[in-house]
Amino acid sequence: MAEQPSLWDQVDLLGLAASDREPAAELKSAQHQPSRAVAPHGPAEQPPAATPGPAEPHPAASPVASAPTTAPAPGLRLPALAPSGRRPLPAAPELILILDTETTALSPEQGECIEVGAVLFHVPSRSVLQQISFLLPCQANPAESINGIPAAVTRLPQPRQGAEACFLAMVAAAEVVVAHNVAFDRQWFGHGPLPSLDRPWICSMEDMRWPAERQLRPNPSVRDLALAYGVPVWAAHRALTDCHYLVHVFERCPELEALLVAAQEPRQLYRARLSYAERHRAREAGFRWNHPVDGAWSRRLTEREAEALPFPVVPVESELPAFLAHSA
């Protein structure tokens, strides 16, 4: 593989972008002055109680959302080189499995997975090697209006056993699994008929810091990401279709190797320490209100990203749902 340009020169690792909108509640969804993360016990202004002011939204990331109406501000650039003494980053994976699911609800406790789509993608050649999708039977699909899958169709005869075996072989061949909103998709594996996947996961929504010139807001939807790379959006919410959008984006992304390397840098969840009046700063930096930390603006960041933020943050050390721990 040809030598890549300097990783930190290629990638806007933080991708801070201005946005005037609150995060959408959907299914599946000033100059910078460097500042360091503060310790949990250090002095900092405590967030106000939840009672004053209007209630903040409770977002759930969605693979489909309207494109931004205004151009985001330039992203925040981080140091050109990783600080010495920190563990080196892994090499870019050559084989990745792009994966998406369709479900009857937001969690395994409420519903079930009814479709899996996957594409085995060769990164150096930007080529699709193999792809598959299959349905899992269900008795009812309350989310039919969103994913367009009638429950009766899931129960029609199909060679499901062979499809599932092919899917597991594709997983075994891949070095990492890539999904747009890993926190949602990963939770369905290891429950019901779907086995756990013994591979690291990369979230193309949260872990991949897309170049600032693409003018994407933090945590972009699949639709916004596709449009930013000139990919036509023709349908949504079937598993393999959403995988194809990522395929076409990856095909057009010259810095893909660098993005995948940076996406594997260790991350942890941080909570913004801002007053209620300054909450827009957290939103513009891609933090989410009330998810996954109740009553707080939070986002998964690398240590370097946390140090580069223009406002204080603290790591969230309380126990969180297992599906949040999707770093390699």
Characterize the structure shown:
This protein is an alpha+beta fold and 328 residues long. Among the domains are: 95-263, Ribonuclease H-like superfamily/Ribonuclease H (Nucleotidyltransferase, domain 5, 2-Layer Sandwich), CATH 3.30.420.10; 267-319, no CATH class. The chain is built from 10 helices and 9 strands. It has helices at 7-10, 144-147, 151-154, 160-173, 182-185, 222-228, 239-251, 256-263, 279-284, 303-308, and strands at residues 95-103, 113-122, 127-135, 176-179, 201-203, 268-272, 288-289, 297-301, 313-315. Strands 3-2-1-4-5 form a 5-stranded mixed beta sheet, sandwiched between helices. Strands 7-8-6-9 form a 4-stranded antiparallel beta sheet. Strand 2 (113-122) and strand 3 form a beta hairpin. Helix 6 (222-228) runs parallel beside helix 7. It is globular and about 55 Å long.
From the structure above, extract its key features.
alpha+beta, Nucleotidyltransferase, domain 5, 5-stranded mixed β-sheet, 10 helices, globular, disordered C terminus
Count of individual helical segments: 10
Poorly predicted runs: 1-85, 321-328
The CATH architecture classification of the domain at 95-263 is 2-Layer Sandwich
Task: Give me the strand/helix succession.
Answer: HEEEHHHEHEHHHEHEEHE
Kindly report how far apart the N and C termini lie: 23 Å
Structural class: alpha+beta
